Inverse folding.
């Protein structure tokens, strides 16, 4: 039997060889390789409406990745909103879920979310009907209110910070 390969081993080798091209294609979307195996960050994909597709994650890093991927003028709006929220609510918890940055209080849920659309950035206050004054954007949900920020809209930072502070003191949304 010397020099012969058992049938079972030949089948296993054949299956492994068939799978190799598929394994090579399984490159994570967040990274790509550039020559000699050096990893480089791939640009996140923009979904319809210009919302960045960011993997689910907790903490500041995925939120910063989302903001960095926001297209054009929306990136500056995202940076301003994030800084205002962090300054207004020290120790705020951050996450990205469903391609949306969320802000909340540990063990109390989420009080605010941000989402990009083609012509504006939408800020969602999950308990917005309890805020004074109530944010302008209506929702089909009874408690939720929105603030839509367009490219040339001025942002009333004092009012926004007041809403953020109020929202952070209310029971959050569990998601």
């Amino acid at each position: 039997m010397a020099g012969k390969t058992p049938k079972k081993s030949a089948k296993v080798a054949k299956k492994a060889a068939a799978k190799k091209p598929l394994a090579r294609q399984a490159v994570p979307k967040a990274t790509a390789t550039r020559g000699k195996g050096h990893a480089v960050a791939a640009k996140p994909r923009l979904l319809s409406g210009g919302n960045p597709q960011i993997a689910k994650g907790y903490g500041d890093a995925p939120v910063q990745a989302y903001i960095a991927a926001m297209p054009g003028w929306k990136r500056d709006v995202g940076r301003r909103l994030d800084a205002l929220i962090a300054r207004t609510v020290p120790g705020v918890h951050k996450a990205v879920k469903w391609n949306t940055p969320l802000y909340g209080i540990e063990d109390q849920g989420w009080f605010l979310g941000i989402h990009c659309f083609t012509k504006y950035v939408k800020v969602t206050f999950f308990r917005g009907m309890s805020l004074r004054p109530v944010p302008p954007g209506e929702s089909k949900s009874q408690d939720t209110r929105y603030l839509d920020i367009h490219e040339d809209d001025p942002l009333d930072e004092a009012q926004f910070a007041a809403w953020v502070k109020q929202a952070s003191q209310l029971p959050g949304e569990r998601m």
